[in-house]
Amino acid sequence: MLNLPRWGILLIDLSICFFALMLANLLRFNFDLAAIEYKFFFWGAPVLLGLRLVAFFYFKTYAGIIFQTSIEDAQRILGAILTSTLALALFSLLSYSAFNAFILPYSILIIEFLISIFLLTSYRALVKVLYLEITNSKKEKKQVAIYGADSAAVLTKQTLDRDRGTNYQVVAFLDNSPDLQDKRLQGVPIFKTQQLSRLLLSANLDVLIISSLQLSADEKQDIAERCLQHNIKVLHVPPMEKWINGELSFRQIRELRIEDLLQRAPIQLDSQKIEAQLRDKTILITGAAGSIGSEIARQVIRFQPKALILVDQAETPLHNLELEFKTIYQFQNYKIIIGDVRNESRMEQIFDQFHPDFVYHAAAYKHVPMMESHPGEAIRTNLFGTKILADLAVKYHCQKFVFVSTDKAVNPTNIMGATKRLAEIYVQSLDRHLQKNNFKTQFITTRFGNVLGSNGSVIPLFKKQIAQGGPLTVTHPDMSRFFMTIPEACQLVLEAGMMGKGGEIFVFDMGQSIKIVDLARRMIKLSGLEEGKDISIVFTGLRPGEKLYEELLNAKETSIVTHHPKILIAKVREYDFLAIKKSTLQLVLLLEDGNIEELVKTLKQLIPEYKSNNSIFESLD
């Protein structure tokens, strides 16, 4: 039946309509054969079937594949039966007017209509169910538990059941609602969430799908960790607003990513105060095509700025950002500008043209080993680029300048961290100098660690290595880092920028430091692989300038709390601006001479805590 030609489907449909007509007559006369008026049956049946045939051709009810019947097929059947029934009702009325006789009594016609609709749709649905049962029975079923027993969980089960490409069998729901205990949902038992450990051990589960949208980040992490310990794959249902046309498809049920496990509770922003500052203002973002800069741009949009000036020297990423703004966001008051923060004349052109009210400076060189090999370029970009923008912000009367720094600026062991620390010092000392002279521009520094998924981050590297079959490369077994999601980091940048009064170095709560090797092992498990069997981890040794542990404050720094639980203010040593300005100009001269050794030596003199690690510059300490 599954491979019937179209004429075969038409023949079956007409046979069903003929049977429906006979059954309608029997029902109309209470199965009393003597009472049936056969004259209506004999001249009504050919007319009815003829009209049904025309309608079937018009609506193409025969064109659908039976074992893939969908709601569209049911709609075509309804249209064909309804149209032909109304046509016969009209012909019957005309027949009565002309010959004082109906083709078919309306009572029989109505009963036949209902029976035909039911039988034509039911037999298609039955064929589809039988086909799915036959094909899926040939596959080895994977045992699935769904975490949650709400409407999303029901839709998840239905999605698995109807998708013929899956071979999943739901054997358990997990939910803590008292109303659901010891009950069954769609024939599947509901267990308490506390029984998860027992299920993991006894139910031979292969997959756990988290459908509940009410779980906190910590709860989700705990569930995933327990499943991964038993080599059980963890999938995740996206929020309902991301479902396509309000329907969940199997392909949307994706694997849990490492970013999901490392996420924390949502940040509570003071959106009203941020909007009060940014609304109808001109915002300049440097490094706008990078991970942090582009996310700041996305988040700033919702506060309705007057204009958004997006500056970066990377052509292709900037072009991609422009395409994103054109296709996704309704906000159109933005300007894409290719420019290098080291080019003072180009930066002044931008400031002179747009007169930004706020500057978010995220442009920087950040790859530690690369900058160890190119200290001059690190100083040009991270220090002089920041100096150029900061000086222009003062000249053109910006309200606030927010500098995005890094935890590598704390007790730096590499060129990258040292240049960012010196940029922090320049910005902070400039702010103190301006306050003494009653200038209004406020300079704020934000300091945080690694962001998940950023360009050059270890997570995209591990994903690529897993896709290639490994090995995963980790520099040292004890290396650890602080991690934060890109949206979380950028939200805190906006919050710190709002609360800053000038001169502060804001330090973000990064949570617990995570060992890189543990991160690698979790990603291997999330990929359904086994370390040592399917893929290996190789330790490659520390790279130039790297240190095992990152810090957010050095030993001589303290911090004070703010109104936001995730933002602290670092109490750091303050420098005289005129002295720092003089030292910066000295670095300019050394850079022009090309004397790298003297350049790094001077950098170390300016930042006494800068001690090189695993670097050719250790001899200068």
Account of the protein in words:
With 621 residues, the protein is an alpha/beta fold. The chain folds into three domains: 131 residues, no CATH class; 115 residues, Rossmann fold; 350 residues, 3-Layer(aba) Sandwich (Rossmann fold). The chain contains 20 helices and 22 strands. A nine-stranded mixed β-sheet has the order 10-9-8-11-12-13-18-22-21, with helices on both faces. A seven-stranded mixed β-sheet has the order 3-4-2-1-5-6-7, with helices on both faces. The chain is elongated and about 115 Å long. The model has no long low-confidence stretch (mean pLDDT 82).
Helix and strand arrangement:
Layout (H helix, E strand, L loop, with lengths): L5 H23 L9 H22 L11 H29 L6 H32 L4 E6 L3 H12 L5 E7 L9 E2 L2 E4 L4 H7 L4 E4 L6 H13 L3 E4 L17 E2 L2 H5 L8 H8 L3 E5 L4 H11 L5 E6 L2 H13 L6 E5 L5 H11 L3 E4 L6 H6 L1 H21 L4 E5 L10 H22 L5 E6 L2 E3 L5 H10 L4 E3 L5 E2 L1 E3 H14 L5 E4 L5 E2 H11 L10 E3 L18 E4 L5 E5 L5 H17 L2 H11 L15
Parallel strand pairs: 1-2, 1-5, 2-4, 5-6, 8-9, 8-11, 9-10, 11-12, 12-13, 13-18, 14-17, 15-20
Antiparallel strand pairs: 3-4, 6-7, 16-19, 18-22, 21-22
Any descriptors?
20 helices; 621 residues; single chain; 3 domains; alpha/beta; Rossmann fold; seven-stranded mixed sheet
Q: What's the CATH superfamily of the largest domain, by name? A: NAD(P)-binding Rossmann-like Domain
| Backbone CA Rg | 35 Å
> What is the quaternary state of this protein?
single chain
Gross morphology is elongated
Beta-strand share of residues:
5-15%
Tell me what the CATH architecture of the largest domain is: 3-Layer(aba) Sandwich
Number of strands: 22
CATH fold group of the largest domain: Rossmann fold
- Indicate the percent of residues in helices: 40-55%
The level 1 CATH classification of the largest domain is Alpha Beta
What are the segments in which pLDDT stays under 50 over at least 5 consecutive residues?
none
Largest β-sheet summary: 9 strands, mixed
Number of helices, counting only DSSP H or I runs of 4 residues or more: 20
